Amino acid sequence: MEDLSDKRKVYNSGYLIESELKDNPMELFRDWYIFAEQSNLIVETNAMSISTIEDDKIPRTRIVLLKQYTWEGFIFYTNYEGRKGQAIAKNPNVCLNFYWDKIEKQIIINGIAEKIASNLSDGYFHSRPRGSQLGAIVSPQSQIIPNREFMDNRLKEMEEATRNIEEIERPKNWGGFIVKPFQIEFWQGRPNRLHDRIIYTLDENQNWNINRLAP
Fold it and tell me: Best exposed site among 25, 49, 167, 177 by fewest CB in 10 Å?
């Protein structure tokens, strides 16, 4: 084992003050996302963790890729019958997290996940590389499989079966979710661990309330 107690860094790349906030957190998210992209320091700016709660009440977290953000929320795609999809079907409350370490920013999003319209899932599915389309069809996501060869063989069989098919049909168990936020926290690293934390909370009148949290 290793003692990590002396591993630390000084945060001093930015700040977050009230005078620079937006009324709508999606505007601030857009600004931060563009800044992260244009910094050329983040390999996958759109990588985010998503946490779900299953029947056993145990939270589970994994990384997915954000594929679109709108005024309504954050869109990603997955297998609806996988562990993540089944958890969302039973409990749509999820938590997203973006952590961009090189620019010392973090965004924590609590929201409700809903399936997007089928035509939107169709459009994105057909924009994917053919191999990714076939992969979505052949993978029984989250189920136990005997070995790696099982998946490789299923893919080869599907490639052969669809060799003369120009457009692959999206499987009905695969598509998009939109996470509609009701709370978003923006975290900016600051010196002496006195980080800036601004939290937006949606009230019953669909207005965003803004508060600062102690670090």
Answer: 167
162-184 per-position pLDDT tens digit? 999 999 999 999 999 999 999 99
pLDDT at 96: 99
The residues, any chain, with a CB within 8 Å of residue 72's CB and separated by 6 or more, are 178, 180
Q: Which domain, by its residues, includes 28?
A: 18-118+176-212
SS3 14: coil
- State the catalytic residue, choosing from 60, 130, 193, 212: 193
User: Is there a catalytic annotation at residue 190?
Assistant: no
Q: What is the pTM of this model?
A: 0.94
Write the DSSP symbol of residue 175. Answer: E
Distances (CA, A) of 181 to 49, 51, 110, 111, 210: 15, 14, 6, 4, 14
Q: Is 142 annotated as a binding residue?
A: yes
Ligand-binding annotation for 7, yes or no, is no
What's the total number of domains in the chain? 1
Tell me if 63 is assigned to a ligand binding site: yes
